[in-house]
Amino acid sequence: MHFHEKPNTYVTNVEIKVSDLQRSLTYYQEAIGFKVLHQESDRATLTADGKTALLTIVQPETVEEKTSLTTGLYHFAILLPTRRDLANIITHFHNNGIYFGASDHDVSEALYLNDPDNNGIEVYADRPENEWTWNFDQVHMVTEPLKIHSILEEGDGRWAGLPADTVMGHIHLSVSNLAAAEEFYTKGLGFEIVTRYGAQALFISTGRYHHHIGLNTWHSENAPKLGEHQVGLKTFSLRLDNEEQAATMKENLLAIGAPVNDIDGGFQTEDPSGIVVLMKF
To answer: Which domains are present in the chain?
Structure first.
């Protein structure tokens, strides 16, 4: 999990808009295994360890369904500590009739679900980093069928919710223009490209992780940004290391024409697809 520690820049919290807060709370607690950290009438903050916020769900006063293709969330990805934890959540899903997709990405083994508002979720476990294949600065990733029976052999059937060491592993975004997104996240925020998937997707990280952020235009090229009241991604937060890094990021963002606004504990910016990014210490 050292890829999700300073000095790396990594996702700490994802904030999504939902149409029915109570329905989503039930889903994220019973199906995914989160615990409630804080709750108000229109929002709830969810955690795995009882103290660290990983996911915030918000019900806007006026709710609109996402009726057309827009930019925003492709999925957020919950990183489990071990392969045994992945086996146990597979058993939990099976026992409770929870449908999921599955893929082997070589660097990781992943499950895919959608919440009641069709927000995309990945639940995954990394393979040991010494088993990843690097070609200079590019990491080898694939999308192949997952050998679920091999994973289940490591399970012990014990499932009591997300393990305390669970983190927000990465976020995958639907953007309107890949070149503009690349400039924002690399020149503006300092991420490095670690994998390109043809002309429509790229994966970026810090500290040679396989990816902290995925970007694609598979269903969103030239699409408008998500509406203020539409369900979907509201914001996501990235961890800042120190004041010097924050000052450099602000300077670089302003140089490429991105907005920068100070907020409590850091600053806020917006990518070219209208996705709000919170930079926090």
So the answer is: 2-280 (3.10.180.10)
Rounded-to-integer distance, Cα 132 and Cα 225, Å: 35
C-alpha to C-alpha distance for 170 and 58, rounded to whole angstroms: 20
* Token pair listed for 134: 């690097």
pTM for the whole structure: 0.97
Q: What is the mean pLDDT of each run of 10 residues along the chain (281 residues)?
A: 94 98 98 98 97 98 86 98 98 97 98 97 98 96 96 94 98 98 98 95 98 97 95 98 97 98 97 98 96
> Which of 77, 83, 84 is CA-nearest to residue 32?
77
Beta strands in 131-241, from DSSP E residues, in sequence order: 134-135, 138-139, 167-174, 192-197, 201-205, 213-216, 232-239
- Distance, CA of 214 to CA of 74 (rounded, Å): 9
Placement of tokens 């029976």 in the chain: 149
Helix (H) or strand (E) holding 248: helix 243-255
Nearest to 212 by CA among 47, 48, 9: 9
